[in-house]
Automatic annotation (TrEMBL):
SUPFAM superfamilies: Glutathione synthetase ATP-binding domain-like (SSF56059), PreATP-grasp domain (SSF52440). InterPro entries: ATP-dep_AA_Ligase (IPR052032), ATP-grasp (IPR011761), ATP_grasp_subdomain_1 (IPR013815), PreATP-grasp_dom_sf (IPR016185). It comes from the Bacteria. This is ATP-grasp domain-containing protein. The keyword Amino-acid biosynthesis does not apply. Residues 106-298 form the ATP-grasp domain. Keywords: ATP-binding, Ligase, Nucleotide-binding. GO terms for molecular function: ATP binding; ligase activity; metal ion binding. It holds the Pfam family ATP-grasp_4.
């Protein structure tokens, strides 16, 4: 039986643990939380931080692993280090480093001609009064889940947003970026042996912009775009992937599209979150993203052939749509795939961690999907 080490045992990692078990693997799972829910489904549990390279490397060297993977952002650095040492299949250490540092990624894109927002690297010593061409977007160089990310339209807002972003940065660094207007999308890919396949383009609808936040509220797949728009997005994403040097891994790319073209906001060398790759892609295309992640980590050939053409969506619950969403869930509509309802709260949704639940559903036609969204959004 092949052995695989999975870094992370939180709720977000449970689907990949179950998929690895379904594929007949012996699953060793690491998480610093000894009560993490994913441990229940694993064969062996390691109460070790997913960022503790030394301890995880020592374990890996003594246990004849066939693969190592994660579905989280920062553990990809550990995955890359272990894979290099043990000659396993994964992204390179350089790729992992670039994909977990927004500044390094921006610098590379700027040098290589990839469309990306203008940016400025700042720290506690930065004189914020120098930045006067609002609006800007302020974000930590090394955070995820929209934590510490805000749009600002004045110096007073900039100072507050800067302090918030700094509190989320392990490195004590913040990016101030020019705000790029436009529609938002994400692109899911796999690259194996130098060949990249675009699996899906997902449309993203955002809430919280009036308060300066950017929280994804709805994901629609496939995105409502023209063939020409798809081509523009795909070309820029492939260009960015090639420049970073991604290989033998998935990627999740965030893109903004406007009259100036497609702008790469950032690329992660992991599967997309927010139920995009665990649910939406399989529902709309039939491509098993989780299974492919396991296979690519074992050095096996992946299958990216699309087996169906449907529409899928995840709508997150927030204080404004909570009642409508709960009523829809309680109607037991046949389009619903799964859902989660959390206790109601009036708390402002500042990041994905503040959401009040979700509904995942799929339809045969776009008209059906839009009709459901009209009821619940």
């Amino acid at each position: 039986m092949k052995k695989i080490l999975i870094l992370g045992a939180g709720n977000i990692q449970v689907p990949i643990i179950l998929k690895a078990k379904e594929l007949g693997l012996y699953c060793i799972v690491a998480d610093m939380d000894s009560c993490a829910p994913g441990f229940e489904f694993s064969d062996e549990q390691l109460a070790i931080s997913t960022l503790d390279t030394d301890k995880l490397m020592k374990y890996a060297e003594n246990n004849n692993l066939d693969g190592v993977l994660t579905t989280s952002d920062y553990p990809v650095n550990v995955v890359a280090s272990i894979s290099k040492k043990l000659h396993l299949t994964a992204m390179s250490e350089d790729v992992a480093k670039i994909c977990t540092n927004k500044y390094l990624q921006r610098e590379l894109f700027l040098r290589s001609g990839v469309h990306t927002p203008a940016f400025y690297l700042c720290d506690q010593q930065t004189d914020l009064s120098l930045y006067q061409e609002f609006p800007y977007v302020v974000k930590p160089v090394d955070s995820s889940a929209s934590r510490g990310v805000q749009r600002v339209d004045s110096l007073a807002q900039l100072k507050d947003a800067f302090d918030l972003a700094l509190s989320y940065s392990r490195k004590g660094q913040v990016l101030i970026e020019d705000f790029i207007d436009g529609r938002e999308f994400s692109v899911e890919t796999f690259t194996q042996k130098g060949r990249t396949s675009i699996i899906a383009v997902t449309e993203k609808l955002i809430i919280g912009e009036d308060e300066g936040f950017f929280v994804e509220d709805t994901h629609i797949e496939p995105a409502r775009i023209t063939a020409d728009e798809y081509g523009i997005i795909a070309a820029e994403v492939i260009k960015a992937i090639n420049i970073i040097g991604l290989d033998n891994c998935p990627s999740h790319t965030e893109v903004k599209l406007n009259s100036g073209g497609a702008f790469i906001i950032e690329i992660a060398c992991r599967l997309g979150g927010d139920y995009i790759t665990s649910d939406l892609v399989p529902l709309s295309t039939g491509v098993d993203m989780l299974g492919n992640l396991v296979k690519i980590s074992l050095g096996e050939t992946i299958d990216v052939t699309k087996k169906r053409s449907r529409y899928s969506c995840v709508q997150f619950l927030n204080p404004q749509n909570y009642t409508r969403c709960v009523e829809f869930i309680e109607s037991h509509d046949a389009h619903i795939s799964r859902y989660d309802i959390r206790p109601y709260s009036k708390t402002l949704i500042k990041s994905s961690l503040d959401r009040l639940g979700y509904i995942i559903f799929s339809t045969d036609t776009l008209a059906e999907l839009e009709s459901i969204l009209d009821k619940i959004k």
